[in-house]
Amino acid sequence: QVQLVESGGGLVQSGGSLRLSCAASGSIFSINSMGWYRQAPGKERELVAVITSAGSTNYADSVKGRFTISRDNAKNTLYLQMNSLKPEDTAVYYCNVEMKINSLRYNYWGQGAQVTVSS
Length: 119
Prior knowledge:
Blueprint: E1 2-7, E2 10-13, E3 18-26, E4 31-39, E5 46-52, E6 57-59, E7 67-72, E8 77-82, E9 91-101, E10 104-109, E11 113-118
Parallel strand pairs: 2-11
Antiparallel strand pairs: 1-3, 3-8, 4-5, 4-9, 5-6, 7-8, 9-10, 9-11
């Protein structure tokens, strides 16, 4: 089993910054990618940013230039640095780990971290 524990969410004013962390533990191997998703009230969950095992990154257009995803492999920890936050960034942010084993993909999710940006 894989456990993902997020931290770093909170309330911030528009233009402010937050840093989310996701600590992974358990049977972690053959990681294909790690990423952050978010879900605002009444909306579907959407990809925010992803980083592959090779270190390449991809971002949603809405956060490009403002958010940075990174990972510390030694600590099995994923980060999301969020700058210039906007009220529309308000959502529950979820950490995701995708493992690929024998051509099968396994996805694990954290419990979610609330991020609220006030105007």
